[in-house]
Amino acid sequence: MKNSRNDIFDLNLCIRGLGNLVTDLHSDIYEYAYILTFRRSMKIYAKEFYDPDDAPMNDLEYFLTTGDLYVTNCYWSIIKLIDYKLELTKRFGIDETDDLLNDAIILESERYKPYCLISKRSKSYKKLVLYYERLLVESIKSLYTYACVLTAQSYKIPRVLTKQFELAEPDCYRLLNSDDNNVLLLNALIVDLKIVLLDLKRIKAEMLFKTILNKRSPV
Asked: Between helices 181-216 and 125-152, what is the axis angle to 10°?
């Protein structure tokens, strides 16, 4: 059975599906941070920390010590998502363990889920950065779609809501329901992730500039 825009809107199920989605997103970004860390800046520990499931990073702040700006960017994405999930859990009394095993909630979490790269190990460092950026962009769009659903209280989202969204447009939230605390909380997360995305683009631009300068420097 697949999700449909004709499904009857259920706020509790919708929120729990969103909660599962956010957990999946920060887990996926954590994997990017982990692999990027031991692919380059902490390569000497690559054999010890090959698999994030077998050798998990218990202290996320370790990612701030690597000196890798891409990894630092991943860290802030993870923190923003975790903070949002904690607040959502508190508001709705969510039992994350139960929700992650609930078939109906799992199905709901797939409704607007962005593409997630499974075979990260097979990709180069450069490709991983590009896939991470893609995930960040698509995650923002996915979360905005949920904000539209919560505003419309329906999976049949009015086109006026979806058409107004532009990633770089600061006023794209004006038609969303600002009286709904769940929408406001989600909007705050979207704004935070957009800031992280802008920082990622800045890092990429600076790295490209340095590469160009190095190529032009006399030997």
From this structure: 160
**Which pLDDT tens digit goes with each residue over 31-72?**
999 999 999 999 898 888 888 888 888 899 999 999 999 999
128-155: pLDDT as tens digits: 999 999 999 999 999 999 999 999 999 9
What mean pLDDT value characterizes the chain? 91
- Kindly tell me if the per-residue pLDDT of 79 is higher than 70: yes
Q: Please count the other Cβ atoms lying within 10 Å of the Cβ belonging to residue 180.
A: 15
**Residues in the chain, total:** 219
CA distance 12 to 15: 5
In angstroms, the Cα distances linking 156 to 2, 57, 139, 187 are: 15, 41, 20, 20
Q: What single-letter DSSP state applies at residue 156?
A: S
pTM of the predicted structure, to 2 decimals: 0.92
Q: How far apart are the first and last CA of the chain?
A: 62
Q: Are 41 and 74 in contact (CB under 8 A)?
A: no
> What per-residue confidence (pLDDT) applies to 166?
61
Give CA–CA dist 104/157, Å, rounded. Answer: 21
Asked if residues 36 and 71 have their Cβ atoms less than 8 Å apart, the reply is yes
Q: How many Cβ atoms from other residues are within 10 Å of residue 70's Cβ? A: 23
Torsion of the alpha carbons at 153, 159, 165 and 166, rounded to the nearest 10? 160
* Measured CA distances, 209 to 8, 67, 203, 213 (Å): 51, 18, 10, 6
Q: What does the block give as tokens for 132?
A: 């991470």
